[in-house]
Amino acid sequence: MTPEQEKLLLEQVRDGHEAAFAELVKAHSPRTIGLAWRMVGNRADAEDIAQEAFLRLYRGVFSLREESRVATWLYRTVSNLAIDHLRRQKLRRKLFFFRRNDDEPDPLELVEDPSASPGELCLAGETGRLLAGALKKLSPRQRAIFTLRHSEEMSLKEIAELLKLEEGTVKVHLHRAVKALRKELEDLQGGQT
Amino acid sequence: MTGHEQAESCQSEQLFLYHYGELNGQERLNVEQHLHVCPGCRNELTELRRLLAAVPRPDSELTSAEVERFCSRVMEHLPVRRHRVLTRPVLGWSLAGAVVLLLTFNLGQEIPDRTAPPDNAPVKIVAVQSGLPDLELLQNLDLLENFELVLQLDELR
Questions:
Q1: pTM (2 decimals)?
Q2: Could you tell me the residue range of the domain that residue A157 belongs to?
Q3: Are residues A127 and A95 located together in one domain of the fold?
């Protein structure tokens, strides 16, 4: 969809044409759901997050700036919603299982997830399976930044703009994420040998 | 010292930035020159590349049927904007009108003096029980039926 087409559709949405909004949803839902899915690792939650992002777009269409692209707006909203979702999920698990600290294993992570994320579906080897588990142990922000850099191939500058963070902060989170993945993989491989 | 430890002491942060192509020209040149002379960092970079290559870049394509289903789901949950546009101002103007009417009628009327009772209001006389001579008489009102007659007879005597 070209910027001109998108602008036209947004005008129509502002005039109350719901069909124009449906066009925007159809055009942007694959990438939006995909991003949410890679971030939270669960299809159902990803669709809930994507739906909330689209509803926010509809409610806020009048305040959307002229130069804003819908894709960028959706990416930002989905990233923030996914980070919030992961934080709530971690907190719920921590409270429910009375884990004293994050180092203790999360019992739910030991249970096989019936709806595998796209990452897990792509993973064939043992390393991939271990990495999928290690990804879930990253902090919500680390996971979001790693996903945006590694899977979405966004630059650190773009991620910083998207999440409204300093570029240095993004760099630190990404570095920590990579180190944590590496350490987790070493520990898991060491534990299996 | 292992390769990893050696790299840690060198510039491990620069290595992952180098891998992701996030260094500027001079920084990139510095890392490349360093890699020529540091086997630990070369090994570290190889390991890093192996690790990140194992993390997939997944393809989460949705079928057109899935996109249609999701779109229908979103459209079902859209807030009804038409109602919001029409009902909210109507409600607001109605409330404002009601307030204006109330104020108009209240201000048009003379405000009564609440300190004095109105002339036509019945005057209530409240008996003070402690002032009565015998509470027992009050408890048995039959005895009071001829009280006045007794008093008159007493005066005649």
A1: 0.65
A2: 123-193
A3: no
Q: Are residues A133 and A68 in the same domain?
A: no
Task: Inspect the interface and report whether the beta carbons of B71 and A34 lie closer than 8 Å.
Answer: no
Question: Burial, B139: exposed, middle or buried (Cβ in 10 Å; 0-12, 13-18, 19+)?
Answer: exposed
User: Which residues, in sequence order, are CB contacts of A46 under 8 Å at separation 6+?
Assistant: A33, A36, A37, A39, A40
Contact B55 A55 (CB under 8 A): no
d(CA A163, CA A144): 10
Q: A154 touching B, CB under 8 A?
A: no
Residue A127 domain-assigned (yes or no) = yes
Please check whether residue A109 lies inside any domain of the structure: no
A92/A137 same-domain check? no
Question: Would you say the ipTM is above 0.85?
Answer: no
Domains in chain A, number: 2
Does A122 contact chain B (CB < 8 Å)? yes
Report yes or no: B24 at the A interface, CB cutoff 8 Å. Answer: no
- Given CB atoms, is B109 within the 8 Å cutoff of chain A? no
Contact B47 A25 (CB under 8 A): no
Asked if A135 and A45 sit in the same domain, the reply is no
Q: Exposed, middle or buried: residue A177 (CB in 10 Å: 0-12, 13-18, 19+)? A: buried
In this predicted model, what pLDDT tens digit does every residue of B126-155 receive, in sequence order? 555 555 555 565 566 665 666 666 666 766
- A51 in any annotated domain: yes
